[in-house]
Amino acid sequence: MISPDKLSLDKACDLVRNNAAGAISTFEGTTRDTFDGKQVVKLEYEAYESLAKKEWLKIVQEARSKYYILETVMHHRTGEVGVGQTSVIIAVSSAHRADAINAVHFLIDSLKVRLPIWKKELLDDGTGTWKENGPIDMSIHKSH
């Protein structure tokens, strides 16, 4: 789900609950108040939603080939996200914790590398900068 609406970790966890699951692992990305010593006021996100959704489905299939997972969900905000607010949630359920934890790590890294979602950081001095994600070593994500 990509939406300007506020995100809920509880709702995301409810969507991945499964009676066969022994673990639910989550990632919640939030807006911090500083970056490189500068005061951040908010972030603004834009997304190419239809392409992002298609690519997310491919990423989930890759995660399923690497880890024994039951359910997954990704929620990402667009528009303005203030300091302390959540911009992205990923939740995964699996029978065992290692697969859930590793899958969440793989999913957030893949999202950062592959999804057409862009972030602008707005500072207290009135300036704003479109941010690029730093390099991510995807080779750390091993298959089972």
What this model shows, in words?
The protein has about 140 residues and is an alpha+beta fold. It is built from three helices and nine strands. Strands 3, 4, 6, 8 and 9 form a five-stranded antiparallel sheet that branches. Strand 8 and strand 9 form a beta hairpin. Helix 2 packs antiparallel against helix 3. The longest helix is centred in the middle third of the chain and has 18 residues. It is globular, with a radius of gyration of 16 Å. The two termini are about 30 Å apart. The mean pLDDT is about 95.
Keywords:
four-stranded mixed beta sheet, 144 residues, single chain, 3 helices, alpha+beta, globular
Give the helices and strands, then pairings.
Blueprint: E1 2-3, H1 9-16, E2 23-30, E3 34-35, E4 38-47, H2 49-66, E5 71-77, E6 79-82, E7 86-94, H3 97-114, E8 117-123, E9 128-131
Parallel strand pairs: 1-5
Antiparallel strand pairs: 2-7, 3-4, 4-6, 4-8, 5-7, 8-9
Helix pairs in contact: 2-3
Structure at a glance:
This protein has 144 residues and is α+β, with helices and mostly antiparallel strands.
Please tell me the overall pLDDT. 93
Q: What is the helix/strand order?
A: EHEEEHEEEHEE
What is the percent of helical residues?
25-40%
Roughly what fraction of the amino acids lie in strands? 35-45%
Note the total helix count.
Answer: 3
The assigned structural class equals alpha+beta
Whole-number radius of gyration?
Answer: 16 Å
Low-confidence stretches: none
| Global geometry | globular
Give the termini separation.
28 Å
Number of strands: 9
Give the biggest sheet: 5 strands, antiparallel
